[in-house]
Amino acid sequence: MPEEKKDDNQVLKVIAGVAVGIGFAVGAGVLAYPYVFRIACDKAFDAVDEDKSGELDTAEISSAILMLYNHLNKRLPGWEDPPSKSKIKELVKLVDHDGNNRLNRDEWHEFCKKLKDDGPTFFRRFTGGVSRDVGILPAVAKTSKQMAGGIVSAVPDSVVAGVMSTTSKLVAGI
Hints:
There is one protein chain. By secondary structure, this protein is an all-alpha fold. It has one domain. Helix content is about 75%, strand content about 0%. It contains six helices and two strands; from the N terminus they run αβααβααα. It has a two-stranded antiparallel sheet with strand order 1-2.
């Protein structure tokens, strides 16, 4: 096979590998997001439930919210302030089904879901791809490099993941 034909085949193989990787990353990011967010909520709950009652009182709810916002603000671009006390009270009333002014784990998850759905833009940024970019794309980049082989295997995983992330964002914008 002529050298030019081999180069063309290599380019097509790389393009196909990247396309498969992007498709996988977009789909996996959508599937993984609820679990990643739930883990962040669980970590905040566990860290502030000091009396290990399995419920958060008013002070613990405030601490958990601050911990969750701090955790996400550190990992996402931009900055968001936590909700106001009045917003917190409003949401607690909506999700506190037993009316004891404390949130059990299920009520806490419902509270966090309402924050995410109705709340600040960083939750939308999180759903918009950060979990995909941080959790999924690096693994997909490595697999795509192995599939493509050749000169692509010399490119760092972080570069391939960055290209895949940018490409998926461009495709999503079209």
